[in-house]
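#struct-pred

JT: dropping the chains for the assembly here, can someone run the whole complex?
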Amino acid sequence: MLRKIGRDLPKIQRFASFAVEKPPRDASLVTSPDQLRPFAQRIWSDVREFINEECIPLEQKFLAQEFSEDRWKVLPEMDELKAKAKSAGLWNLFVPYNIDENMEYGRGLTNLEYAFMAEEMGRCLLGSEPFNCSPPDTGNMEVLIKYGTEDQKKQWLTPLLEGKIRSCFGMTEIAVASSDATNIESSIVSDGDDYVINGRKWWTSMSLHPNCELCIFMGKTDFNASRHLQQSMILVPMNTPGMKIIRPLTCYGNFDAPGGHAEVDFSDVRVPKENLLVGEGMGFAIAQGRLGPGRIHHCMRLIGNCERSIELMKERLRNRVAFGKKLSDQGVWKERVGLSRVETDQARLMTLLAAHKMDTVGAKVAAKEIAMIKIIAPNVAQKVVDRAIQAHGAGGMSSDFLSPHS
Amino acid sequence: MLRKIGRDLPKIQRFASFAVEKPPRDASLVTSPDQLRPFAQRIWSDVREFINEECIPLEQKFLAQEFSEDRWKVLPEMDELKAKAKSAGLWNLFVPYNIDENMEYGRGLTNLEYAFMAEEMGRCLLGSEPFNCSPPDTGNMEVLIKYGTEDQKKQWLTPLLEGKIRSCFGMTEIAVASSDATNIESSIVSDGDDYVINGRKWWTSMSLHPNCELCIFMGKTDFNASRHLQQSMILVPMNTPGMKIIRPLTCYGNFDAPGGHAEVDFSDVRVPKENLLVGEGMGFAIAQGRLGPGRIHHCMRLIGNCERSIELMKERLRNRVAFGKKLSDQGVWKERVGLSRVETDQARLMTLLAAHKMDTVGAKVAAKEIAMIKIIAPNVAQKVVDRAIQAHGAGGMSSDFLSPHS
Amino acid sequence: MLRKIGRDLPKIQRFASFAVEKPPRDASLVTSPDQLRPFAQRIWSDVREFINEECIPLEQKFLAQEFSEDRWKVLPEMDELKAKAKSAGLWNLFVPYNIDENMEYGRGLTNLEYAFMAEEMGRCLLGSEPFNCSPPDTGNMEVLIKYGTEDQKKQWLTPLLEGKIRSCFGMTEIAVASSDATNIESSIVSDGDDYVINGRKWWTSMSLHPNCELCIFMGKTDFNASRHLQQSMILVPMNTPGMKIIRPLTCYGNFDAPGGHAEVDFSDVRVPKENLLVGEGMGFAIAQGRLGPGRIHHCMRLIGNCERSIELMKERLRNRVAFGKKLSDQGVWKERVGLSRVETDQARLMTLLAAHKMDTVGAKVAAKEIAMIKIIAPNVAQKVVDRAIQAHGAGGMSSDFLSPHS
Amino acid sequence: MLRKIGRDLPKIQRFASFAVEKPPRDASLVTSPDQLRPFAQRIWSDVREFINEECIPLEQKFLAQEFSEDRWKVLPEMDELKAKAKSAGLWNLFVPYNIDENMEYGRGLTNLEYAFMAEEMGRCLLGSEPFNCSPPDTGNMEVLIKYGTEDQKKQWLTPLLEGKIRSCFGMTEIAVASSDATNIESSIVSDGDDYVINGRKWWTSMSLHPNCELCIFMGKTDFNASRHLQQSMILVPMNTPGMKIIRPLTCYGNFDAPGGHAEVDFSDVRVPKENLLVGEGMGFAIAQGRLGPGRIHHCMRLIGNCERSIELMKERLRNRVAFGKKLSDQGVWKERVGLSRVETDQARLMTLLAAHKMDTVGAKVAAKEIAMIKIIAPNVAQKVVDRAIQAHGAGGMSSDFLSPHS
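RK: done, full complex below.
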């Protein structure tokens, strides 16, 4: 299979060499992958094939490890998956064309084009890691590409882009409503050539991953500045003294291993001044820019989640007989599948529009659509996934039906 | 105002002369009127201006007549409105480019382009009549354009296109579930040079209009043919002996005057054979083709309905104080306005996609999207309109808030 | 039939003579009419029979008049209906036992017992008028029973209890959010032996009824008193100079004739001081006590509305075939009927509990349940009625299916 | 505390000695625990106190163990909790009065009375196990009380009632839709003095518990009998050769340890004929009777779940500030708490009515209400719990907020 995916890499590269250009402000909306430019279309179908043939077959093993004592180890097959995806050119797809004009970092895809890839990645439990497109690394890499110094890039961006290390983002705090970033209470205090960091973070996703080596930390350098100029971002290596993982958090009883979500304490953590990003007081601005694309990725993965749920639901309904009739022939189930299709397709259109506006008129104008998909996609996913669970009876609560029973 | 709307009619014509061409199969989706080709954009903004300046100010008068004894008369201003719209080139906009290559009948708009106009028309209670775009005439004219003989066109299509007469469509029957057209029981029996028609129809919209002169009647010419070849369509002048309006039907107590919805009896109604459309047994096929565009028009008008409701809701919320605070500053109302925006924008995207597929890949492929918008748009409208009503308190049930109180 | 309903009136009276006693504070909840004490059970089944046999057969006629020019006249049969109900002892049932210890005014029913009657009345479009249980008379009579002087009672309560006149309640104002009664702006100014009234009311229900002779008017006697002591209530005969019906309001295009809802202007309307209820500043307190029972009545009538809708829906589903199968055998419709049953039964239980608490622990403690049913019952009715409409196809929008087609 | 709960055990016993009598068919509905007879009221308040003071403080420890490698062990404190509850008379409360006239097994509570206790048990994650009221033991004990021989009772019922062993119920099969019990495919074949059992079960809850010693197994003794006479139930000790736990199943990634839900294989499992319950072909009838009370228990526990969620949600809202205002002062959250109250109270009323009908008119008549609560309670719980999660932000996904942070 891999041969097939990688079959015409040189040709793809060639396509790419003239493919990157900003879509015009009034460009119309691509609503289906076969309307993408050939270069992106090829990547999309390669990603889809890779997911179906390489990743989905590993889901049961991935889950079994997650439910076992080995959960904090990386899936043994992950390194090979990443190597394959990389060699097939399916790597760092998330880096948007507009911060990567020479395709130094990624493949020069637009936000819209990558949205279609993200949907595919959301169809599989292994997610976007095989493609080095997994959060929070994606957001962290974007930040480093846009704001990192040459030294910062060399030390952190390069290994991240190569998939050699993982990273986390220390923003949410246990004591305050951190959805409003101005509430943040952690301090970053200048002391000679260093900054000294104190604070308590939680929901620091990926911090438990064995390869996690960097935390981009958000705190306040000036509690007296105006509200949006108090925050700064700083690079903190994971092994810095004073930094301590308190505990893994659970999501409905699951650890989301091996990345997990930790509560992390920072007590007099000292890092050199050159670790600061951009400058003091720039934290809020960096954070704002960081969240938009991530929301689109999350929502498209949720759409992929819905699509997979519909696939599984339909398969079950075709194969299950109750009260003398196939479930797929029963009106209530036709209605539920129909509603799932209606809701998923609507959510996709709006998410694509958000990505498209990001590409054509910029993040600021796209803010309205991004706010809308944050409401739409999770609510739709909750409904569609719930219907798929119900279609499987008690079995829907287990993970048996992800792939054909072995 | 009219001067402004009609200001550059010759220029529009000129644009138009080279504007009609089929969008390619893989065209991407126009999601906003300012992405339309300049010709269509101009018509759209003229339609919007016409609605806002000419039609909305008449709403209260229109409603007052509807609730009075004069309801079965045409609104006195309607003829003038139609004349203005016609002279401004805002006429027969619904005729799609693909059945009107030489722009003989309409303006050569695509289904997608007209969808944007239909949304605007849906913002006003007077609807699409001023633009001669009102159902069921629109569907009837489409049928005549596509299937009418020269004689049929001359007798019926011409006055319809000129807005001189109105027409109705006799399909739904009281005795059977007519959403399945194969259930229809009315008979069209050959007798010498004539056909003799018997049956009972209801929900025959527009049949009560003083200018209604034609009924396109659907019945069975052969009860023994295969299921989809039993039906035929035939032209029946409204004054044909044996045809009798039994009564107007009410919609939640309203007559929808002056067009109304009647129960109509056909007893030995005799029309000449040349009144048959296409041929015996072609009724089902004609009906199928007739419904798709109409559904898109209906759904886009519902979107317009939602938009108007949101406008009125927001105006009310800004101007009403309760419990010591403007309603617009209260969280519950922010949430309701937000949801209305989310639902309306999603419904619009899907309806535009249906119209776009109609243009690019044809009605057959678009069937899925058309089926989806039939579910989506009415449900969204019900929710959005209900919220707007609630925002107005008891007053929301009245028609006081359609326009500024005089 | 009437003979049967009135068959044992003396016996009922006898039951009644020892039946009125306050339910203990910890009484458990009667959830079904056959658990009522025999006296109330008998009245309930008589009311039900009266509705089914005397009232429902008149619905089509009632509606036809409502949609005609005769709408502002009383239904010709109404007087006879009222006479029959009165002679059968089905009269003024709403007067609660606790303000009517000697059964001077009504039948000594509890709020809970009357709730079951109100449900039955809600099953029919003619509503509660035949039983002299129709708002706003009910609330007005309650107010007069509790707070009226002997003279006020003689002049207004007696003819109201006899069903000879109707009355309205002037509270809601066009200019302010009147759901908060402290917002009211109308003035009641002392001037010698009179009060002089100025203000503009709307949604003054029943004010258009040909027999309406009294308005209980709420306004402010002291704009400087503390918030809840500014309001007073005063009796205003409908023919008082300066009082003017401005126009009937419409509810979704209907007039709710013959009672209607009017906008009413009061300009220097002068009434003698003895028309004031209780005393200056007591208006808010009276209003608070007035609304609780009315909300229970409204909600139970809505439950009755739901029950009737379910009856009609089930009848339709049993008799309609679509796509080769009876609708009642199709899963989607089974689900919709099931949900309607579930929602209606839950709403009834909560409304009964509200009435029961009113009886056992008083209006103040019952306030929470009364607030809940205000949310529940209208929302449930909206869903159940909508499903019944859908089950009837287009016909569901008309009023054809209220009773067997004639 | 325990002293207080057990303070007047003799007095309770005395109450009880004359308290057991069947409620009359037309009894009205107790809707609040303070309307219960004093005996039941006392038990209810003791259960509530026990939950609050003994069980809730152990929740965090219980969860920590569930998420650890020790999950398959019984919580160390459980034995002591059970001993305390037993000595306080809070033991085997589920046994309904009508199968326990001499209070040989339980406390002679009605289904309605126990419903209130079950609600309290549902407020705590430890559930009903401390009170020996935990499924599937409860259903199994009921079956043994009603249908067990003296020998069967001695061997299995006695240790179950004493809380010394646990049990499971082998009904659901992996291959067929087991919600229809007639689909069951496992076989129970007579062979000399034994029955030989073959089949594959899953979702066999409690089968992994270290104390689980008995499986009540459902299979078919006669595949050719009429549909409802094919099934039989038989007692299978857990250590019987041929019976094999295949694996624990997960519920959304959790094991529900230590009871768990297993897939269990039965290959030529041989048990003596006297292990059969009642007789061949009685399995379906026994199963039908077994499910009704269990559904009420489940639903009332879900109501308790909702109540706990509302408590936690309100506490959070009072203590959290966002965007400059306490969450509890923000309209959207007032609405969400209000809806949660409305939905929970309605669900409780209907569940109580189901229990009440079970007591007064029997399981057959109560079937409609039992069917309704199966729809209502889980749907309400899903909504209420979701709102409580949202109120806690990301923290809502964790288990941190179950009890005050330590």
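JT: nice. The domain at 2-161 of chain C is CATH 1.10.540.10 (Butyryl-Coa Dehydrogenase, subunit A; domain 1). The first strand of chain C starts at residue 166 and ends at 170.
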